[in-house]
What does this fold into?
Amino acid sequence: MSDKMKLSTESYKGVRDFYPEDMFIQNHIFKTWKETVEKFGYVEYSASLLEPAELYRAKSGEEIITNETYTFTDRGNREVTLRPEMTPTVARMVAARSQELAFPLRWYSIPNLFRYEKPQRGRLREHWQLNVDLFGVDSSEADTEIITIAHQIMKNFGAHDADFVIKINSRKILTDLYTYFKLDSEQSHTLSKIIDKKLKITPDAFLDSVEAILGEKAPELIALLSSNETLLTLLGEKNLHSKELIELIEKLQSIGIANIVFDPTLMRGFDYYTGTVFEVFDANPDNPRSVFGGGRYDDLLDIFGAKKVPAVGFGAGDVTARDFLESHNLLPKYTPSAQVYIATLSSEFTDHARTLAEKLRTKDETKNKQGLNVAIDLSGKKVGDQIKIVHKHNIPFVIVVGEDEVKTSEYPLKNMQTGEEVKVKAEEVENVVRK
It folds into this structure.
């Protein structure tokens, strides 16, 4: 092949290759997610990453199809989209069997998602996302459980409460605020978009944008958004929505979630939120961003004409999860799957090494043996070079098989970290490795 014909080894822009060390971290994230949500009784579901484009067009409009998704026409002349989010899919699935399902539902998934946008820190064109949803409970108990799970995920990653903050708001409180300023639905929608971008633009730009809607009342709104107490005082103690949010915060604090704060500027970008919204923010100044978030979306099934089902949940991406772990030195240390490597003095001992490996891999509950992960040498290289392979792959133990080992059935088991070596029978290897 000529130089001009050589293909690039670069991956597609905005996606990642997962080498074993990267996959190790990815599996750690997934494992933590799964174990945490399953402790709360959530069950896993899944679906195809291909959906009819009309699903997203009906939910979010033409713009997302045209500018933000990977949409194409298949060979059957159907318009298809690689899913940019999981919420429309799970809504479709629940709507399809709403008469059969036993509510409440506690569901979770970790789908692969695609969105055509400019790659940047914390946001790529492809990522995986934990989706956790509780369907069929309209009380604040559901909101409490979902936020508790979000908090527990962070704790299970090894984070302390000082490492992150959970910001909370209510779309209903914002609706009350817009009513106070006598805004119509179009003005309210526009203002919500502006508030959502508050931290991404300068104070002057924010003031100009608010003035375009409120005129001379803009400073009053900005002052209210800057003071939690003032806003709640304005709405009054008898305001149902502010009372609900205060009670939710107090309930969360009473069960040990002390790092939760009311933030009236918290919007969450999606239009389908109907009540509580929350986001987990990294407290590290080197990574000052949202890690993940969610909220209540009681009108989720509207586009399918299905009976209304209250729902609350969140989505947590793997990219921001890894950034958080990295910024707090919580990334797990890579360890290979192989616990023992069997080297041979020559290829004539490969069959014996294979037999030994099978014996070490075998689980025997009567002898309290779980079995080990064992790799054998197939390179045919000199023993010294085989040991270099063990070092290169960070495999913790090595056994070298030669004529003496075949005769005596005793093997030199070497700890590659300490350098300690002991002679053991095959049945003793696991005890030493797991010591």
User: Anything to note?
Assistant: The first strand starts at residue 43 and ends at 44. The first helix runs from residue 20 to 39.
